[in-house]
Amino acid sequence: MVAQNPLFSGRFTFKKFQATVINDIWPEVLFFTAVATAVAVVTKLDVKNLGINSALLTVLGTVLGLVISFRTSSAYERYQDGRKMWTNINTASRNLGQIIWIHVALNREDKGLQRKQTTLESIIEKKSLINLLQAFPVAVKHFLRGEQGVYYEDLYPLISFLPKYANGINDPTDCLPLWHSHEHEQQPIRSHVDNLNNDDEKGRRHERGEPTLVEGKPDSRSSSRVGKKRKDNFDPEAALPDVESEVPLKPARNPPETSIFDFIPLLRFFRWVVRVILKRATPGESRHRKARHVNVESNVPLEITLFLNNYTAFLMRSGLVQPAIATALQGNLAILQDTLSNLERICNTPLPFAYQAHLRMSLWLYLLFLPFQVVTPMGWITIPGTAFASFLLLGFLEIGQEIENPFNYDLNDLDLDYFCLDIQRQLHEITTHTNPDPSEFIFSALNQPFAPADKRSAADIVAAGENYQTPEADANPGMNSIRRTLVRSWKNVDILTRKAY
Q1: Disordered: where is this region (predicted)?
Q2: Among candidate residues 240, 251, 242, 222, the one with its CA nearest the CA of residue 134
Q3: How far is CA 158 from the centre of its chain?
Q4: Is 167 exposed, middle or buried (0-12, 13-18, 19+ CB in 10 A)?
Q5: How many degrees, rounded to 5, is the angle at CA 410 between CA 409 and CA 411?
Q6: How many Cβ atoms are within 10 Å of 141's Cβ, its own excluded?
Q7: Residue 433 lies in a domain
Q8: How far apart are CA 325 and CA 307, in angstroms?
């Protein structure tokens, strides 16, 4: 399957060229084409013959092509591994959701470590844990993109009910790692329940003109999202809980702004030179900079798996799941943790700089001497030939660098937002299952279990009595007739499903 072409889908903008590598390699292609033009002009106008022996052209070109092919293949392997890891998250999330929703008992009595609990309370408990499971891939998405913390529009509403303080007391010094953020450490984090119970706080928010959560009001939204609309009217965060946050929530998707430096990479060098000059021109600046404060942020996906493991331990201690089910819960949680480690490995293990630098310099030298080696046999064709060769080789080299880390916002990266929304849809679909008794739907007038040999409904077959007979009224009713019907069904299916060629 080939990825969708972003150049010709939707409204055309120059930003779509970022899906290709043209905007990254065109300065280099232009430079080597200019060199080829100068060599061809000087040689063909008989100013001086700049042609050199091309004995090394074939050998070096073959070796360089193999190295570039290996570079691109290794980068694509990382791309594929990233996709496989997200498939593992999808599968494990579905399995955990089904086990929690179907196998965890609803009836709770005061027995041993169990506490008496109503069916409604049990359903709320299980749905809340599945919502927490839904938060795991979202947290992984932000983690891979280097977006620290939990205060995002698509993450905070799913985990806002988790404990915030070690001792259960609203004390900023006891803030748990999940909620620790140096960006907001001077501002205490208050829970939504505390805000609703504090009339003075609500009054102060009203005086400041800040929105408050109104119970039962469908338009009540997180304070950081009020009044926000996307241009395409696509707002998946509207399906999330409406909770209040004392910390302004960041957007669920925050790609870097496109600038002229993305289309003209050469300007990045001049920007760097200007910055160096301005720094040197700043008077009174000490050469010895103060040590920067290192921001310590929690590993949010790991924190979520800790709560999920804690729930599994609670189920096992309370005897609410069978040992086999507990083993399945632990196995799928281990898959989530193992997948997180593999994704972190892919994200934080770039190709060594020495390899990248040596490969790029080798390619530059090859393309620089290419016109001198082909100008004698090719003449003016040297110019388009060099342009094509530089476009081809530099393009493959840049593609390897483009897909090496497939978790960012580039158009060629994996669509992590789509994966998270897909898991969200599947988990909500699981929770619509009503866990019915099989007898409620099996013995239905719409069920024909023995078709195609016997197209009577299950209700009609049961009504006919215990001694089953085929529609042809065999002489030996009972199990013999049932077996005979199943054999006939197999014969009919085998005949009807084979296409005659």
Answers
A1: 186-251
A2: 240
A3: 17
A4: exposed
A5: 115
A6: 24
A7: no
A8: 18
Question: Which tokens in the block code for residue 54?
Answer: 């091309």
- Whole-angstrom distance, CA of residue 435 vs CA of residue 432: 9
pLDDT, tens digit, for every residue of 167-191?
A: 877 777 778 888 876 554 434 444 3
Residue with tokens 């013959």: 49
Joined together, the tokens standing for residue 158 give 């799913």
**How many CB atoms lie under 10 A from the CB of residue 285?**
9
Distance, in Å, from the CA atom of 348 to the CA atom of 144, rounded to the nearest integer, reads: 9
In sequence order, what E strands does 366-471 have? none
User: Does residue 197 lie within any of the structural domains?
Assistant: no
pLDDT in tens, 223-271: 445 445 555 677 888 888 888 888 888 888 887 776 665 556 666 666 6
Residues 46-74, mean pLDDT to the nearest whole number: 81
Among 229, 231, 228, residue whose Cα is nearest residue 10? 231
Is 117 strand, coil or helix? strand
Residue 47, amino acid = V
Pairwise CA distance, residues 205 & 218, whole Å:
20
Q: What confidence tier does 420 reach under pLDDT thresholds 50, 70, 90?
A: very high
Can you tell me which residue has the tokens 């696509």?
A: 234
The token duo for 231 is 């241009």
Tell me, yes or no, whether 436 lies in a domain: no
Amino acid at 213: L
Structure tokens at 431: 């929770």
How far apart CA 36 and CA 380 sit, in angstroms, is: 9
Amino acid at the residue 242: D
Among candidates 245, 239, 233, which has minimal Cα distance to 187? Answer: 245
- What's the rounded Cα separation, in Å, for the pair 346 and 198? 46
The helix/strand/coil state of 108 is strand
Domains: count for the chain: 1
- pLDDT the model gives residue 10: 56
Residue 453 in domain:
yes
Q: By the 8 A CB rule, do 6 and 19 touch?
A: yes
| CA separation, residue 380 to residues 39, 51, 74 (Å) | 10, 13, 37
Question: With contact defined as beta carbons under 8 Å apart, do 27 and 262 qualify?
Answer: no
Phi-psi region of 329 (alpha: psi -120 to 50; beta: other; left: phi over 0): alpha
**What is the domain range of residue 463?**
442-496
Is the backbone of residue 233 left (phi > 0), alpha (psi -120 to 50) or beta?
left
Classified as helix, coil or strand, 420 is helix
Total-model pTM: 0.78
Rounded Cα distance, 212 and 226, in Å: 10
* Among 101, 6, 20, 40, residue whose Cα is nearest residue 377: 40
d(Cα 136, Cα 328) in Å, to the nearest integer?
18
Q: Cα torsion for 447, 451, 452, 454, to the nearest 10°?
A: -110
